Task: structure prediction
Amino acid sequence: MIQARGLALLILAAASCGGDRTARPTPAAPSDLPHLKTGLQWLDLLGFAYSDDPNEPTCAPPFVPRDGTQVTTRVVLERDQEEWVAREADSGSDSLLLRFHDAGRSVLGRRVAGTLRGSAVNVPRFAFELLRDVRVTIAGGLAGSATIEGTVPSLDSFVLGKASGEIRFGDRAGTAWSTCSTIQWSLQPAGGIATTAP
Result:
């Protein structure tokens, strides 16, 4: 009986001295998306010309403009405190601005969330690629911006996700426009020019 009482006192003393670590879990440090790279990136914005998935509705009217509902443009990705910011890289381009932050874990890696605003024209990715006459404009939503979500896969440096809002694709002359409520977006380093984030 005395031995049992002594053992109980030892356990109680150990718990009061911090011996029971399971009672007070240490919060995880916020992620800074370490696999992303700062520097020059390709940003792709793709509207759905045809879809039977209600989560990825077709842009309306479909197959407008003539050169499609996809814009590729170059941006510079930078770290801004707790956010990542991508701005237009080419001189004379429009003012597209992408901002996102870490939104927690997912099965595939880290989730991101943020906003997309402004407009941009399509830029050929390769020298031999024909120039497509397509412009994207974020026309509505929260303060003229679209909300974005996406995933940074584990051990990789690209982002893939969706943007939601009033997103319009048209020709540069402004004569043919198609409006999309949801589009796909991706961000990846432009070969060999990006640098690892500090």
Observations:
- The radius of gyration is 24 Å.
- Residues 118 and 139 are 8 Å apart (CA to CA).
